[in-house]
Amino acid sequence: MARKKAKTLRTENDATETVHALTEQIASLAHALWRERGCPHGSPEEDWFKAEQEVKQRRKGELLALLHDVRTSS
After folding, report:
1. pTM of the entire structure?
2. Which ranges of the chain have pLDDT less than 50?
């Protein structure tokens, strides 16, 4: 039982770290997009949403490439 609990905690910690890293990537990209737009006042959601979509696309591409590598190396 203790092993299962430890594994669950490790998995939860990994997931939390992953979410934190993705949030940091989105925040950094959103800030860069905002600066590129001349640092306007108002709608920060616009930059956040665009950054979130870009990070999701990058991650999707990375996962697809990894899947392709796994399939071709088998």
Report:
1. 0.71
2. none
